[in-house]
Amino acid sequence: MEHYPLPRDFQVTPNxxxxxxxxLTRPECVLALDDGTLLAAHGAGGYSVISSEGTVSHRLxxxxxxSGRSYVPNGIALAGDGRVLFADLGKAYGGLFSIDTRGRIxxxxxxxxxxxxxxxxxxxxxxxGVLWFxxxxxxxxxxxxxxHEISDGFIGVIDAAGARIVADGLGYTNEVAISxxxxxxxxxxxxxxxxxxxxxxxxxxxxxxGAREIVASLGGADLPDGLAFDAHGGLWVTCIASNRVLLVRxxxxxxxxxxxxxxxxxxxxxxxxxxxxxxxxxxxxxxxxRLGNVSSIAFGGPSMCTAYLGCLLDDCIRSFESPIAGxxxxxxxxxxx
Length: 337
Prior knowledge:
By secondary structure, this protein is mainly β. Helix content is 5%, strand content 43%. GO terms for molecular function: lyase activity.
């Protein structure tokens, strides 16, 4: 195994974080482009653009009033053709959509296997044009799955053959990422409190998944949400509730990179997840944490060593510098059309 270069004692303190941009609305997911532009989900129905100079602009759906539907973009993606895509985490409805620079909404996928998509969590388009997406749970409201017992989330793909589910029975499916060697698809199972992976089978343009393996089991209030690989195979994981950034090293050791935890709130969340009594109101606060339920991590900057953090409950993106570079993702060289 290649020597992993990050020291085991590397940590970042909350005071070392830099605020990159403010004035955002639920910037749950962040994408970093190689010209310095950042894209972030906008919880009121679109996405935000942060220029390399720090200027913030918002592109919101113009058709909500006409359709009578409010969109809640959760995961966002930049497709190879320049379309901005989002997974809609609505209260009762989900689906995958595109939104152009004028705010016009287009449907990408509203059903799979003949069943309408429930509230949808995440999506990404890989270098072969395959769109990967996740649905956390089929339960409505979603809070019914905020426990260790419900495992009805799934991973799907859209490729040349159409849309299909490639993995099912997950414990609140969240973000997915392909490993640097392209042998594995990793996934966060938020309320099962684990990081899992699947062998990546099939062909690049018609992928399939093998049997699940558990990579890391977490405890306390560590609820894994976002994830990103570095260039050496380490997996960086953001945890809501505990407001921690963890690193799953290639040898399987879990290292704490950043923590800003309100212990009282964390203990309450941990107990209610175990008991199956966690409520929506419990997750609408981060307690005294300053990180606002850190939900996303994206590597960018000229050397890919800047780690950008999205969140659920604050209006900003924060960043810190990593001693090692992140893995360059396909969307890094793409541009909004």
